Request: fold
Amino acid sequence: MTRDAITKADEGKRVLNTDGTEVGRIVAVEDGHGYVDPDPGLTGTIKAKLGWGDVTAAAHPLDEGSIDEITDDAVYLRGTL
Reply:
């Protein structure tokens, strides 16, 4: 199943550029925007997967217009982050 709208269920997923390069993970979703941390570390990844993630200074906002598709495992971007 694929979709293009980001939800809290996507926290912890890998974020990939169009060429398949991993650029980080979704660490939080707030008001329809995902926040991508380029290097969340093990603790940050686990917290995000549990829905306990928070927006850090290193996190970049990601709006739905930047998303090509969302699968069970990853968020694929239309371009690069």
Observations:
- The CA atoms of residues 54 and 61 lie 12 Å apart.
- Residues 41-49 form the longest helix (9 residues).
- The helical segments are 41-49.
- Strands lie at 14-16, 22-30, 33-37, 60-62, 67-70, 74-77.
